[in-house]
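Appendix B. Chain record.
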Amino acid sequence: MAANMDIPLPTDSATLSPLPDVLRHGLLGVTILAALSFALSVTAMLYLSYKLVRWHFKTWSLYRRGSGHRREIDLNLGLEQQHFANSRSLPGGGTPVPHKRKALNQFLVLIFNLLIADVHQSLAFLLNGVWLSSDGIMVGTSTCWAQGWLISTGDLASSCFILLIAIHTYMTVVWTYKPSQWALYAAIGGMWTFIYVMAIIGVTAVHNGSGYGGYYVRAAAWVCKKKRKEKEKKTPLTRIETLVLGFASFPWPDRKRTEPG
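C-alpha cells predicted for this chain:
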C-alpha cells in the first residue's frame, strides 16, 4: 500500500539506506526483544485459550448431566406431586433446582484482550528484522505501511485495555459492583471498534498521505504516523485518546456515602 511520493520527504522521514552501525545494533536489540515479547504473548494467549475452552466444555457437560440439581427439604406435607403444578420429583424425594452455569472470569477476558494488543505491538517491532535484512528502512513499501499500522493500533489498543482493566478493577473493589457479562463483551467490542475506526479514519482522511509523502513514514529507527505541518488544522480526533484517558483518571469519589454519626 505504497503512497504517492509527489512531495519529497524530509531527511528524518525519508528512506534510510544503508543503516548506520549504531542504528543497526539498536534495531537488532529491539527485534530480539520483540520476538521474545511476541513468543511470550502468543504462548500466554494459547494457554488461556486452552483453559477457557476446557472450562467451557467442562461446565457445559456438568450442566447437561444435571449435576447442579440438588435435593431440597421435602415440604409437600404428605401430599402427592400431582397437586403441584410444573413440578418433578427426584429419586428419594425433593425437587430439582436447576444448575446455573458460571460465567467466565471477567479479569481473564480483559487480560486476553490486552495480550492481543501486545501481539500488535510486538509484531510491529518484529518487522525491524526486515530492515536489518535489507540494510535500510524503505519508506513507501508494504512493510513500512504494516509497521506503522501495527504500531498505531497496538499502542492505542494497549492503552484502551489498560484503561478498561483499571475501570473494571475500580468498580469491583471500590464500588463492589461486578458488571454483567453482556456489558463486558459490549465494552470490549466497542473498544476494538473504536481502535480500528480511529486507525481507518486517519488513513482515509488524508488518502493514505497522498501528495505529501505518505501517512506512515520513517521516524528515526522505525515507522509511525507522519507529523503534519503546523499550518494545517489539527483534527479533534487526534486528541480523543488524551481526553478520554484524562477523564477516566480523574479521582472520582466513592458512590458509597458514609452515614453521619
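Further analysis of this model is presented in Appendix C.
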